[in-house]
UniProtKB/TrEMBL annotation:
This is Uncharacterized protein. It comes from the Eukaryota.
Amino acid sequence: MDLQHKLFQSGTSSQHRNNMLQSHRIVVERQWQETIDPQKLVLGKVLGRGSFGVVHRGTYEGQTVAVKVLDFGDSKITEATMAFLKEDFIKEVNVWQKLNHPNVTKMIGATMSMTKSCRQKIKKTKTESNFCIVCEHIKGGSLRSYILKNRHKKMPFKTFIRMALDIAKGLSYIHSQKVIHRDVKPENMLVDKQHSTIKLIDFGESIFEPSELFFTTGERGTRGYMAPEVVSRKPYGRKCDVYSFGICLWEIYCCDIAYTYNLDNLTPDIYQEMRPSIPINCPRSLAHLMERCWHIDPMKRPEMKEVVVALEEIEMLEECEDLPAVRGCFPLFGLERYKSRRNVDRCTVRNQ
């Protein structure tokens, strides 16, 4: 269990708590090792900006890479805040560097001591730091961008299933490594056009899963994808990622955004009842899987390895001659909608 969560649950005095946190940070920093040579890193143009970082295209030892440079915002941050940011950075690196899977973006290394030579192609901004993570460069952009670009087109059903399986396999793998992502959303998934795969990225909110459920001191992740138990600050574990996956599954199938309005001011009791409306043309087996993934009770959600099996079974339905080969990004209408539901149900019964 994370030390800060332990202290939050206990009645530890403020002074003792601060002392323990300081000791914990010292231990974390002693575990830090530079895993790249900053002299060999060169930053190029900005590819994107997030809440806590700026992503550049760069080169490292002749290889094109993506470089996430932490953005600390105010350059006048306090020493205490810097200590927290440094600890969070080390935690992200410690989690990410242990992961190795085709559906997880590969981390190459990290440094907390970028040099002037790193920035010979750009000017350092006031908000960027010397903390950076270097990972493989994926040319296809985010899954969110892909969805928005293709929302007026038809997506082959096999493309949808391939994407869903890639994400499910990536999450199943990180869960097998006792890691909880805690910010599963299309923005944190990259489309690798070269290998036709989806890869998870951004482990800034990720933690190693404790042996027991734990309380969090605040919300983690992004509302709309965040599990109700996280919003309510109740005990949670890896099933929070399963909930997030369920929302992503809906968005990929519908080529749309589940919630287009601000959810920040919703109370936990209202938030926990919210779910996207599943299109009537959605295959029954797929609709059932979405509903299981975003069930309000985490114990009733499937494990990600079970989701992989369920998606593979749904993929087999494509071989049924009555199942439409192409699924549109928008709901079908009239008789076509009725035929779609009827054909899927016939296929389901045939395979039971």
